[in-house]
Amino acid sequence: MESRQKIVVLSGAGISAESGIPTFRASDGLWENHRIEDVATPEAWQRNPDLVQDFYNQRRKKALSVEPNAGHVALVKLEDFFDVTIITQNVDNLHERAGSSKVIHLHGELFKSRSTKYPNLVYDIDGWELKLGDLCEKGSQLRPHIVWFGEAVPMMDVAQDITEQADIFIVVGTSLNVYPAAGLVYAVRKGVPVYVVDPNSPAVHGRSNVTFIAEPATTGLTQLADQLIAGTLSS
């Protein structure tokens, strides 16, 4: 097991979109018909917690109605041959539902809640609904376990450390425009192969050994997984 190459995957909204989860922000700047400032900031929570709770309740309900796709499954398949860690910008649990065993969520987890006063108190959400009046064990209101705009990204240092250990780095379903997550591609060691799976081939500046696969996650990751596995079998 120790001799297995380490694959690190940075995944974004594009892979979830192929399962039917709307991408983070539409072309009109709205997220599910809401301004980001109204549903995804600490100020929004202070101003209108009912709206914020309802927004994430609907996101959970939607996430429960979809299934992992072939892209998610391809990443699980790689675990038979590689040490695979997924660093995801997505808050859904489709990677876990597909069977991936090591998933780091940079922007929080949709199916978890946490205490507003004691952020280390985190709980699984049973079903899709979190209500005002649902309290932590110390009596504080529970909020979505989501990293909102303006909040620190607590898993970023962990993600950076793991990225620096990668023997192969895969980017899928992200425009590489959302920081600090997008900066991880520049933490990959020099000479390590980077594969970018995205129909739009987002720019990666100042790196060599980058291969672009201009395909959706479902087809592109399936092709890449087969290629990488074939390489291990022939070596």
Instruction: Catalogue the unreliable spans.
Output: none
Percent strand: 15-25%
Class per helix and strand makeup: alpha/beta
Give the topology string: H per helix, E per strand.
EHEEHHHHEHEEEEHEEEH
Overall body shape: elongated
Span of the ends, CA to CA: 16 Å
What is the CA-based Rg, rounded? 18 Å
User: What is the typical, i.e. mean, pLDDT?
Assistant: 92
Helical content band: 25-40%
Count of extended strands: 11
The DSSP helix count reads 8
Largest sheet, in brief, is: 6 strands, parallel
Features:
three-stranded antiparallel β-sheet, 235 residues, alpha/beta, 31% helix, 20% strand, elongated, 8 helices, six-stranded parallel β-sheet
Mind explaining what this structure looks like?
With 235 residues, the chain is of the alpha/beta class. The chain is 31% helix and 20% strand. The chain has 8 helices and 11 strands. The strands form 3 sheets. The protein has a 6-stranded parallel beta sheet, with helices on both faces. β4, α6 and β5 form a beta-alpha-beta unit. α5 runs parallel beside α8.
What is this structure, in a nutshell?
The protein is α/β, with parallel strands linked by helices and 235 residues long. It has helices at residues 13-17, 36-39, 42-47, 49-64, 70-78, 94-98, 156-164, 217-234; strands spanning 6-11, 30-31, 34-35, 83-88, 103-105, 108-115, 122-124, 142-146, 168-172, 194-197, 210-213. 31% of the residues lie in helices and 20% in strands.
